[in-house]
Design goal:
The complex is a heterodimer of chains A (192) and B (609).
Chain A lengths: L1 H28 L6 H9 L13 H9 L11 H12 L17 E5 L9 H5 L5 E2 L7 E2 L19 E5 L18 H8 L1
Antiparallel strand pairs in A: 1-4, 2-3
Helix pairs in contact in A: 2-3
Chain B lengths: L17 H4 L4 E2 L6 E4 L9 E2 L6 E2 L4 E4 L8 E2 L4 E10 L7 E9 L19 H10 L12 H4 L10 E6 L8 H8 L1 H15 L3 E7 L3 H10 L6 E5 L8 H9 L14 E5 H13 L5 E7 L7 E6 L4 H7 L9 E4 L6 E2 L13 E5 L18 H5 L6 H9 L3 H6 L10 H5 L6 H71 L2 H21 L7 H10 L4 H27 L2 H30 L2 H9 L1
Parallel strand pairs in B: 1-14, 9-10, 9-12, 10-11, 13-17
Antiparallel strand pairs in B: 2-8, 3-5, 4-7, 5-6, 7-8, 13-14, 15-16, 15-17
Helix pairs in contact in B: 4-6, 5-6, 5-8, 11-14, 14-15, 14-18, 15-17, 15-18
The chains are: A mainly alpha (192), B alpha/beta (609).
Chain lengths: 192, 609
């Protein structure tokens, strides 16, 4: 009788050792570097790198969200980003915190080139290297790379940078949703 | 008899084709102005090759794509480029786009053309180039550059070439009339395409509601291996994927192209354009357009130059402006309402319907979905229109995408059967557009992130380099210092030139001390003698000592003089001495150290003094 108890104990111990070893190995071998949640959050942020959230870039903000920070500090992303973040983190979406700014239509920076004195201040301010130019030479914005973050506007000593709203053209146009029509009985009522 | 398959769903809307088939194709003639949009195809917009005021010949290339996907635009007649401006173009948005405006001179003078009747002697790539240079883009509606379509990926062999003559959409008869009147051209174009692709099978698919076209084509294909497949009339059998399914029984995979299953579909109009380009050397400068609807008195098909304003064509068809309630470009199922008559005919324009209010009444208001499921039965792509509608309406685009929203061909069969008159297709188009915008924004955000990270990395690297340089400089300075100290030490040890300097410095200091103490002039001689006693063991030092002594005497003379004069010299000397004081002290320290480490007698002699 004791032998069978012994056998059982030995077998269980052996199993415990084997699986413990396996788990330990797996924990070492497949260790995840960094917080994968930060990457997922970062992927949802608009990457304007504008700093309106109070963090020096989108990634630091993503890190703060991953640490449980508020998700409503990103004006460029607006409601859409907040909704996506709420979905990802399984929390209730909150309205955009107006303290950090309001949601605006898409804009790009445009330098009035004849007024540019070539001070390179905006080049240093641009978080995505979207401004071209050299000292004492005219600068210009690469429109396709501009995120519309506004960061170049303040440093300009001659105020020659405008934020221009991107107008939809025939190539960026898309269908609008059908207007919710009045139901038939309502229409009859309205026309009567 | 060709074996036929069927596709699921489909509808049988009223055809209304007889309105426009009563008259033969008429030449539309020369309008006052031709408006040529720079983009009439899928891909990159073209760039104008001419300037305002330039005189162009018929068939001259006036705009081309510098790089990327696209086909050139040609002058449809000879004339002068009047302006290059943003004008309304046929587009559901009703927006403007860059257009060339050509004022015809009425001469209709061709530029020199190069027909290639024996195209078989050429390389296939050369013929494809001819097709590209002729500006041919799919004329069925999408406008995809034909030369690219005719060059399927290397690993995809096209086994079946299908010529799409189904023309299933109500009202439109452009392909029908083309087949009736230009059957030979259609077959010639098909032969060229077949020669390029080398398929095992060539099929012309025609709906059974076009008996005249079938008869004409039967005659034209006499002696060739081309098949004519007469398919039952059902909308949308003319859809590329549906026609392929009918004729081959195979389905184009989701997200794939027909070439993936070894099939290619080409439009009737495209075949004619290819024949014109290769056999006549004429670029695509005109096309057949159906002008129909109850509001025109002379409906029919027109051979219209590309760029002809719709307005002009409507006049030709004797439109009753007062009766027109809606102007539809394309068919009633997939077309869209035009906001202006000023838009021109482009390469993809196949039909204009000037409809009266009774003919195409305003859509009744949308009512709630009753989940009847008729849309799912009608869907030729076997999608779930109802679910797609819910998700699109709720802007849950991801879910709609999961239900294969992008497989929707926007045929409108679901909207047609919907008893609640829900504009389903518009919801799908809206959802597709939003998803495309989101994707584009995601790509842009990813690029912005990449650029941001690259910039951060660069700034960090620059910082590190700066730090490295600073460290290097500090190290170099430390090394120089150490070297100097070592040299001083070495000099003290080996008593080279450094010792001389040290001795001199010592002398100067002693002189100063003497001066300060106002002692006798003879006294400095004692310390001067001291080095002589210090270094009796080193011969070289002795030599230098004699030199130093000589220098000491001159120095003493100078000092005496200075003292006697009581002039600025003393001040200067003092200042110089004060400046050198540190150095002298260091040398002294080194000297004393060296001396201590050296023979004891030297040390003794020093201490005694």
């Amino acid at each position: 009788m004791w032998t069978s108890v012994l056998i059982a104990v030995v077998v269980l111990l052996a199993l415990a050792v084997v699986f413990g070893g396996l788990l330990g190995f797996a924990a070492e071998r497949f260790r995840v570097e960094g917080n994968p949640l930060v990457d997922e959050i970062d992927a949802l942020l608009p990457q304007t790198q504008c700093g309106q959230c109070g963090y020096p870039g989108c990634r630091p903000y993503a890190e703060s969200i991953a640490d449980g920070g508020p998700i409503n500090k990103c004006p460029p992303g607006g409601e859409g980003t907040i909704k996506a973040l709420a979905d990802l983190l399984d929390v209730e979406p909150e309205p955009l915190d107006a303290e950090h700014g309001v949601e605006q239509v898409k804009r790009v920076a445009v330098i009035r080139e004849d007024e540019c004195i070539g001070c390179t201040k905006c080049i240093q301010a641009c978080p995505v290297d979207a401004i071209l130019g050299a000292a004492k030479h005219m600068h210009t914005v690469i429109e396709s790379e501009c995120t519309g973050c506004d960061l170049c506007v303040d440093p300009c000593p001659v105020d020659c940078i405008d934020m221009v709203t991107v107008e939809p053209d025939i190539r960026s146009w898309t269908w609008t949703p059908p207007r919710p029509g009045v139901i038939a009985t309502d229409r009859q009522g309205a026309s009567a | 008899m060709t074996q036929l398959w069927d596709f699921s769903g489909g509808i049988h809307p009223a055809e209304h084709k007889e309105i426009s088939t009563a008259r033969p194709i008429r030449a539309a003639g020369l309008p006052e102005r031709l408006v040529l949009p720079l983009q009439q195809h899928i891909g990159e917009p073209t760039e104008a090759l001419v300037a305002v005021g330039d005189r162009v010949l018929k068939g001259q290339k006036i705009a081309d794509v510098p790089s990327g996907t696209g086909v050139p635009v040609h002058a449809p007649t000879s004339g002068v480029i009047e302006s290059i401006a943003d004008l309304p173009v046929p587009h559901p948005s009703g927006m403007t786009d860059r257009c060339l405006v050509l004022k015809p001179d009425g001469e209709d003078r061709w530029q020199s053309r190069q027909p290639i009747p024996d195209y078989r002697s050429l390389d296939r790539d050369q013929v494809l180039q001819v097709i590209r240079d002729a500006g041919i883009a799919g004329m069925g509606g999408a406008g995809f550059p034909t030369n690219i379509k005719l060059r399927p990926p290397r690993d995809r062999k096209v086994g079946t070439l299908i010529l799409n003559g189904a023309e299933c959409e109500p009202y439109i008869t452009a392909d029908d009339m083309t087949m009736r009147e230009k059957a030979d051209r259609v077959v010639a174009g098909l032969k060229i395409m077949a020669w390029i692709l080398r398929p095992e099978r060539c099929v012309i698919g025609i709906e059974d509601n076009k008996p005249e076209a079938i008869a004409a084509l039967r005659q034209a294909i006499e002696g060739t291996q081309t098949e004519i497949a007469v398919i039952p009339t059902k909308y949308p059998s003319g859809g590329e994927k549906q026609l392929i399914q009918i004729l081959t029984g195979m389905e184009v995979p989701s997200g794939g192209i027909p070439a993936d299953i070894g099939v290619m579909c080409q439009n009737i109009g495209t075949a004619v354009a290819v024949a014109n380009a290769v056999l006549d050397g004429s670029p695509l400068i005109s096309r057949v357009v159906t002008i129909t609807g109850d509001a025109v008195r002379q409906p029919g098909n027109f051979e219209a130059l590309i760029g002809t304003p719709i307005e002009y064509l409507l006049e030709q068809a004797e439109v009753d402006q007062s009766a027109v309630s809606r102007l539809v470009l394309g068919g009633p199922m997939m077309g869209y309402t035009l906001t202006t008559e000023a838009v021109p005919v482009v390469k993809t324009t196949n039909c204009v319907i000037a409809a009266t209010a009774e003919e195409l009444p305003a859509p009744p208001p949308e009512q709630p979905c009753i989940r009847c499921g008729q849309c799912a039965e009608a869907c030729p792509m076997e999608l779930l229109p109802q679910q797609l509608f819910w998700h699109a309406k709720a802007t849950e685009f991801e879910k709609a995408e999961h239900l294969n929203l992008f497989d929707c061909i926007e045929c409108g069969a679901c909207s047609y059967v919907c008893p609640s008159s829900i504009p389903l297709v518009q919801y799908y188009r809206f959802a597709k557009g939003e998803i495309r915008i989101q994707r584009a924004e995601q790509i842009k955000a990813d690029r912005a992130r990449e650029r941001f990270e690259a910039r951060q990395a660069r700034l960090e690297r620059e910082q590190q380099e700066k730090e490295l340089r600073r460290k290097e400089r500090a190290q170099a300075a430390a090394e120089a210092q150490a070297k100097k100290a070592a040299e001083a030490e070495k000099a003290a040890e080996s008593s080279e030139a450094g010792d001389e300097r040290a001795a001199k410095a010592a002398l100067v200091e002693q002189a100063l001390a003497r001066k300060k103490a106002k002692a006798e002039a003879a006294r400095p001689e004692e310390p001067a003698q001291a080095p002589a006693e210090e270094a009796p063991d080193i011969e070289a030092l002795e030599k230098q000592l004699t030199q130093a002594r000589a220098k000491l005497e001159t120095m003493q003379g100078m000092l005496d003089e200075a003292k006697a004069q009581q002039a600025d010299n003393v001040d200067k000397l003092e200042r110089a001495v004060a400046k050198n004081h540190d150095r002298v002290q260091r040398a002294e320290a080194a000297l004393s150290e060296a001396k201590q480490s050296q023979a004891g007698q030297q040390a003794e002699s020093q201490t005694t003094q």
